[in-house]
Design brief:
Layout lengths: L9 E8 L14 E2 L3 E5 L9 E4 L7 E8 L2 E7 L7 H8 L10 E2 L11 H8 L4 E5 L7 E3 L7 E3 L4 H6 L2 E5 L4 E3 L4 E3 L16 E5 L2 E4 L9 E5 L3 E6 L6 H12 L4 E7 L10 H10 L5 E4 L4 H10 L12 E5 L4
Parallel strand pairs: 6-7, 7-8, 8-11, 17-18, 18-19
Antiparallel strand pairs: 1-5, 1-20, 2-20, 3-4, 5-6, 9-10, 9-14, 12-13, 13-16, 14-15, 16-17
Helix pairs in contact: 5-6
Length: about 325
């Protein structure tokens, strides 16, 4: 399946929530722009009238996606982080007006990707906003490892979202955004042998907890940038990084993977085939790999070793810019 996606002149991805905030990370001229600080604020204990304010990190993911084709520009939020406060704090520090956000897309239903919607609602001041979500995102879920430490994974409340002014679009198939300027992948086919999900995820059905190693609501954002290829943005990457990247190329009809950004869920160690995943991504020769959130240190280390020219450390405030060649 190839979606009717319009080749963009420019795609920007601004990281609003991630597990890392680092003011000392280098950027890349015109392509990776670091913005760890915001406008000055008063601090009575420091010997200065105002000091730079900083973005904050938390265990979660959110980004602002800006797509431009000619004179048309559209912006949407992909995921919202964990807490009600981090997303809106970072929007303020990065001087982004929440009212410029035209829609919200959710990668899946886990609370570290949806919790920040509560804070966003307060900033929208009653404005209705479309929100795109897979139907399974509303399942009650938990992680239930043999250690016995059960971790609840509460989903967003459908009724609460609607009551807060969100206009829901619930779909498990690929979904075009803004007349084809970007798309959600919908359910990602699981085709590799080594991306087998997490064995201790469960969901509640009929009063019983059932195994759910594969979170079928896991979906990614895909777009085409003229002359560069496909860009894919993941939330957690539960579908498997290689499965998602291959699906992105299939849906866009592109041969080149210009970039993959977001969580690749290769943590915890022992359950995910890191060398196979790294080799699978390297075989696709991506122009940029900005893995963060739930990717895990060991996977980040191996990605950096295998793809030294493409790999960058993801961090809150980073702006990734994919611009079509002008010559």
């Amino acid at each position: 399946m190839v979606l009717p996606l319009e080749p963009l002149d420019e795609l920007q991805v601004q990281i609003l929530v991630d597990n890392v905030a680092d003011a000392l990370l280098p950027g890349r001229e015109g392509a990776v722009i670091r913005r760890p600080f915001g406008p000055g604020v008063e601090n009575p204990l420091l010997d200065a009238p105002r000091v730079a304010s900083a973005v904050v990190a938390e265990h979660g993911f959110a980004c602002l996606v800006t797509a431009r084709a000619g004179a048309r520009v559209h912006r949407f939020l992909f995921d919202a982080g964990l807490s009600p406060t981090a997303l809106v704090h970072n929007l303020e520090r990065l001087e982004i007006d929440p009212r410029d956000i035209e829609a919200v897309a959710l990668s899946h239903g886990h609370f570290d990707h949806t919790g920040g919607l509560a804070g966003l609602v307060e900033r929208l001041r009653g404005r209705e906003l479309p929100i795109l979500v897979h139907p399974d995102a509303f399942r009650q879920r938990r992680s239930n490892p043999p250690s016995g430490r059960v971790l609840p994974l509460p989903p967003p409340s459908r009724s609460a979202l609607e009551g807060a002014g969100f206009r829901l679009y619930v779909d498990r198939e690929p979904h075009l955004l803004f007349d084809g300027m970007a798309a959600l992948t919908g359910e990602v086919p699981r085709v590799t042998e080594f991306e087998q999900g997490y064995p201790y995820f469960e969901y509640l059905e009929g009063g019983e907890w059932r195994p759910e190693p594969h979170l079928m609501d896991d979906q990614a954002v895909v777009a085409r940038v003229r002359g560069l290829g496909a860009v894919v943005i993941t939330g957690c990457g539960h579908a498997g990084a290689v499965n998602i990247a291959r699906r992105a190329l299939e849906l866009t009809g592109e041969q080149q993977l210009a970039g993959i950004i977001g969580g690749l869920h290769l943590q915890p160690l022992g359950f995910f085939a890191i060398p196979e995943t790294v080799a699978g991504l390297a075989a696709l020769e991506p122009g940029l790999v900005a893995a963060g959130h739930c990717t895990g240190f060991e996977a980040l280390r191996q990605l950096a070793d295998a793809l030294p020219e493409a790999f960058v450390v993801n961090a809150v405030g980073t702006l990734y810019r994919f611009a079509a060649p002008t010559d």
